Amino acid sequence: MSLFQPIPNAGSAADTTRPLADRMRPRTFEDYVGQEHLIGPGKPLRTQVDRDDTGSLIFWGPPGTGKTTLAKIIANMTRAEFIEFSAVLAGIKEIKQVMAEAERARQYGTRTIVFIDEIHRFNKAQQDAFLPHVEKGNIRLIGATTENPSFEINSALLSRCRVYVLKPLTEEQIVLLLRRALTDHEHGLGEMNLIASDDVFKKIANYTSGDARSAYNVLEVAAGLAQKNAAGAREITDDIVRDALQKRILLYDKSGEEHYNLISALHKSVRNSDPDAALYWLGRMLEAGEDPLYVARRVVRMAVEDIGLADPNALSLCMAARDAVDFIGMPEGNLALAQAVVYLSVAPKSNALYTAYGDVRQDVEQTAADAVPLHLRNAPTSLMKGLGYGQGYQYAHDLEDKVANMQCLPDNLRDRVYYRPTNEGIEKRIRERLEEIKRQRSRAAESGPTQPK
Asked: Which is it for the CA torsion 51, 55, 60, 63, positive or negative?
């Protein structure tokens, strides 16, 4: 039996054993909802399809935004054979077999579109297996991924594909799809004679976070739970939707890009002194199942990177929040993290320590590792004393101002300044103290060195 299977006829009757999301899959661009920036008249993808010149493509976007549907519409419109791979199930053997069939089919004038769902799950060797066939034109590759292709797809394969970014569907678009499904007698739930209010549709749309597939799934479950109301109609109510939802669907992948997007949003909200935004992004992460100790570690990092010595208590409070999460667990530990991010948000901000250490690290890497000056070295043996270890050291406690005019950096960095405190919080006092130390050092220089201790 051939590996090439025809795409089901667009006009065929719906198979009610298939999930609603699959039955309601659009067959044409006219029925497709969303992604107008790609498939609207004159837009790049639509133009490519109309010219029958799509080449190989990568669709990058969140779940339920229509990546698979777009691939199938393109195959229909370009009259190409459509082969669908799952990166979770397929191996090198299956890939090579299909590639061989595609090469033979091309010799007879048949074009093949190979669609790979979750292409980011293919390893390097599996991705490389497609490369020569894409180059020869034996296949047009369409990959779908929820992860950033720059990180997950081989550069050689990526350079031969055009990447299109799909956006989450809006609430209005999800509502439109749900209304269509409820009244569609051929593919949807029309035969069930259900009714639902706009508020019910909006609630499903809001809770499914722009994921059409999830919205369809919730509607299908809710339809099965619907009971006749006083007027004798089967109605999907708020309570039924709540039962169908069970728990809000939050777009999150603890090892994927959304993980980094959310922690970035949390960090930048704290840095911008916005406690409301910081609390929101914290809640998004924790309620989606993020490891609270990971969040605690990042919160500690914020304390030292963005607050520093402007408020030294910030670090202590964040360490206490980390210990609280570890000690009492979740969900009680959520409030300890919430307290920490709000404190960091309203604390005075300074990255003086962060930039100072960055400059130190750069000098360590890029300058000669000069020896420790002799006067800063201990001299526990007579040999060391004879070599000059400790000679010229000035004991600060013996001086009136407790500050000696003594060079403590190596010669190649003698005038380097790393730490420049700001005028924020306690750092204002630190800056004033450093200015006083500078004046004391100048007075010590004028009075000459004291007797070494």
From this structure: positive
**Structure tokens given for 207:** 């809770």
Which SS3 state, helix, strand or coil, does residue 86 take? strand
CA proximity to 340, closest of 365, 315, 304: 315
306 touches 270 (CB < 8 A): yes
Structure confidence at residue 437 as a pLDDT band (50, 70, 90): confident
Asked if 32-165 and 171-245 have one fold, the answer is no
Q: The whole model's pTM is what?
A: 0.58
Spatial distance between the Cα atoms of 76 and 111, rounded to a whole number of angstroms: 12
Confirm if 210 and 202 have CB atoms less than 8 A apart: no
Does the pLDDT of residue 49 top 80, yes or no? yes
Q: Return the exposure string of 398-408: e unless at least 16 CB atoms fall within 10 Å of the residue's CB, then b.
A: ebeeebbbbee
pLDDT of the residue at 397: 84
| 32-165, CATH topology level | Rossmann fold (3.40.50)
CB 116 within 8 A of CB 92: no
**What pLDDT score was predicted for residue 8?**
46
Strands (E), 156-204: 161-165, 194-196
Q: Does the structural domain 171-245 have CATH classification 1.10.8.60?
A: yes
Residue type, 267: H
- pLDDT by residue (tens digit) across 374-387? 888 888 888 877 88
Q: Are 153 and 128 in contact (CB under 8 A)?
A: no
The architecture (CATH level 2) of 257-346 comes to Up-down Bundle (1.20)
Edge-to-edge strand list for the sheet holding 227-228: 194-196, 234-236, 227-228
Domain positions in the chain = 32-165, 171-245, 257-346, 372-447
